[in-house]
Design goal:
The chain has ten helices and 22 strands. It is an alpha/beta fold. The chain has an eight-stranded mixed beta sheet, sandwiched between helices. The chain has a four-stranded mixed beta sheet with strand order 17-18-19-21, covered by helices on one side.
């Protein structure tokens, strides 16, 4: 009897000691939420030129959300928010982040607000300004963050890496051809939209010219970055997925609202692993499209094919996710560095206004234990994204594109010599790649 009493007393003391250890050590908390923002009425969509999409949406195929993941280390908080739309313009982005800060006391520089770069979603432009969807957007973002804060609890984390080839390099090197097809049927077409004509002209392409299209021989960033977040009980709570690819499997001729491949990916994950909520961070996909794009290379828009593309990468996430062992973070402190990196503008922009020769690019780097996030307010080419991830020296690096602004493309210096859509539309001078990488590496050193 005395022996049993001694055993119980020993167990009791061990429990007290364990509780004391937990109370003295910092603990990472996490909360996640999603707010349905699927429009209930017809709205104008974003992502393609209005010459093809001449009218508003004609229906929906699946739900679109605002998703928020909040971390808390007991001293500071970090909010990650991703909306299933093409982008959030710079001024609107800043205004929403200011609103979140005022409503939650999370500092503005601790708020990462981005988009999934979904080209089959409503647009935050003046055409929708009178709609309920547009007018409720800001408050829905705040609602998502507050719901994630309310969901905060101590968590265990773990990381993993998968491989996916749903993406394909989109910088197509043309051959000598003469046809009736324009280089980008989603923006200007002789057979559809505003420039539809009964008397099409033949268009000549020359060998070596770069256009938008499928380039199966080109490189991509095939890495699927995964962060698993579990409750202390071991039950799955959240998953963060990072992959570099445009949300453009549905082209400019599609007028149906869709969550695109990434939304269907999260749908598959959440159905396969009950209790888990997902959030997608688009990576450096400036030169990567899905394997097929409606309106390009002879492909037609197909909502089911888009869903299947998402299920394909979703299965890879589940495969990796199932093998991740989560533990209490060894270093749960949230470390954040923010810098405005000054980058030079292209000559054609400078010649229009000599007073503005540079743009300040807001970049945030975050480290939590083995995980590091680096943001970019636009569309990085994948080679630059891979270099940034390598420079983090983290076990699990993530590049968060389309975050805290919408400054367009940052191609590699090599791409400027080749030409094509992205270098043409970019605001940045060719040397920007080197400047951006150099300054980002300096930032990352401050995380350690």
């Amino acid at each position: 009897m005395k022996r049993k009493g001694l055993v119980f007393k020993t167990i009791f003391i061990l429990i007290l000691c364990t509780l004391e250890v937990f109370s003295n050590n910092p603990v990472l908390k996490a909360g996640i939420s999603k707010v349905d923002m699927t429009p209930t009425a017809s709205v104008f969509m974003g992502g393609y030129d209005e010459t093809c999409r001449t009218g508003p949406s004609d229906g929906v195929y699946g739900k679109i959300y605002i998703r928020s993941l909040v971390f808390d280390d007991g001293i500071r908080r970090l909010a990650i928010i991703v909306a299933d739309i093409v982008d959030i313009p710079g001024e609107r982005n800043q205004a929403i982040r200011d609103l979140i800060a005022a409503e939650t006391d999370i500092p503005v520089q601790h708020i990462l607000l981005g988009s999934a770069h979904n080209h089959a979603a409503p647009s935050l432009d003046s055409r929708n300004s009178e709609s309920d969807w547009y007018q409720s957007f800001d408050n829905n973002v705040v609602k998502a963050v507050k719901a994630a804060i309310a969901d905060l609890e101590p968590v265990k984390t773990g990381g993993g890496t998968g491989i996916s080839h749903i993406g394909m390099n989109r910088r197509k090197r043309m051959e000598e051809t003469v046809s009736y097809l324009t280089f980008d049927e989603n923006n200007s077409s002789q057979s559809y939209g505003k420039y539809n004509t009964n008397t099409p002209v033949k268009i000549r392409e020359m060998d070596g010219v770069y256009r938008l299209g499928a380039n199966p021989e080109g490189s991509i960033d095939e890495e699927v970055g995964i962060m698993r977040i579990d409750k202390l009980s071991g039950e799955p709570k959240a998953v963060l997925v990072n992959y570099a690819c445009h949300g453009t499997s549905l082209g400019g001729r599609n007028n149906t609202i869709s969550p695109e491949w990434h939304g269907h990916m999260l749908e598959h994950i959440e159905k396969t692993m009950p209790g888990i909520t997902g959030i997608f961070l688009p990576g450096a996909g400036g030169d990567i499209n899905p394997r097929f794009v409606g309106g390009l290379d002879g492909y037609e828009d197909n909502l089911e094919n888009t869903a299947n593309l998402g299920y394909e990468i979703g299965k890879e996430v589940i495969r990796v996710l199932s093998g991740i062992h989560t533990t209490l973070p060894v270093n749960p402190a949230i470390k954040i560095v923010h810098e405005d990196i000054t980058c030079p503008l292209k000559y054609d922009r400078v010649i229009r206004d000599f007073r503005t020769t540079t743009n300040d690019v807001p970049v945030t780097a975050v480290r939590i234990d083995d995980f590091v996030w680096v943001t970019f307010p636009g569309e990085l080419f994948h080679e630059i994204g891979k270099k940034v991830k390598s420079a983090t020296h983290a076990r699990y690096p993530f590049l968060a594109g389309y975050c805290n602004g919408a400054m367009g493309y940052l191609p590699t210096q090599q791409a400027y010599s080749e030409g094509g859509y992205e270098p043409w539309t970019s605001r940045f001078a060719p040397v920007t790649e080197k400047i951006f990488l150099k300054e980002t590496e300096k930032m990352l050193l401050k995380l350690y």
